Amino acid sequence: MDKKLLIVEDEKSILDILSFNLKREGYDTIEAMDGETGLAMAKTVNPDLILLDVMLPKLDGFEVCRKLREEGRSTPVIMLTAREEESDKVMGLEIGADDYITKPFSMRELLARIKANIRRSKMDESASAPVANGERIVAGNLIIDLNRLEVLKNNEPVDLTQREFELLRFLASSPNKVFSREELMEKVWNYEYYGDIRTVDVTIRRLREKVEDDPANPVYIVTRRGAGYFFTEA
């Protein structure tokens, strides 16, 4: 069965190019040209992935993504934008977007990201089954519950995005092992190529702000200068 993609983009020329190329790759596409319509279609057609422009009439892409995540919908979302400000990237990742690509981009790059995010989504569904014996990783005042897919800090739940949880789980499952940004892109983001490694840094920073007592002096998620990141059990 063809994968169904929802494209929410208000520039008709870009929308047509995306739809044409994605259909040529075997995807079934549905299009919307404003945020309100895109949000409604995301709820009714249940796409396998959403390409979501940030600057949209009626409801911007950030708000569309936020509303979907608030309703518990885990459909992969790749945000499209012409803006390169890191604050936009941080906001997109914080509200639960899975990926972020800046215009102009090549179709080859976009297709690789689409495939990676759909594949990762299917892997997540398989991994969401209960873990035997309710496995937990305990480190200092953190508890990473692999059965409930949640993190507790001082016995209080920590509000993590899905990607933040995946990254923390991956690092904590191999304590004291250093992973380069490229390795994390491959293992956590499931990319077969090296994407924008700044995404790793942004996600690490947001994760530290949520699980570390002092994010500027992290105890759990540590940087090995020139090499990458690793998790310590403190």
Could you characterize what this model shows?
With 234 residues, this protein is α/β, with parallel strands linked by helices. Helix content is 41%, strand content 20%.
What layout of secondary structure does this protein have?
Elements: E1 4-8, H1 12-24, E2 28-32, H2 35-45, E3 49-53, H3 61-70, E4 77-81, H4 86-94, E5 99-102, H5 107-127, E6 136-139, E7 142-145, E8 150-153, E9 156-157, H6 162-172, H7 181-187, H8 198-211, E10 221-224, E11 228-231
Parallel strand pairs: 1-2, 1-3, 3-4, 4-5
Antiparallel strand pairs: 6-7, 7-8, 8-9, 10-11
Helix pairs in contact: 2-3, 4-8, 6-8
Q: Give the spatial strand order of the biggest sheet.
A: 2-1-3-4-5
Order of helices and strands: EHEHEHEHEHEEEEHHHEE
Helix content: 40-55%
Query: Can you give the mean pLDDT?
Result: 86
Strand content: 15-25%
Largest sheet: 5 strands, parallel
Which stretches of 5+ consecutive residues score pLDDT under 50?
126-133
Termini separation:
47 Å
Global morphology? elongated
Q: Which structural class should the secondary elements be placed in?
A: alpha/beta
Number of strands: 11
Q: Number of helical runs?
A: 8
Rg calculated over all Cα atoms: 18 Å
Q: What are the main properties of this structure?
A:
234 residues; single chain; 8 helices; alpha/beta
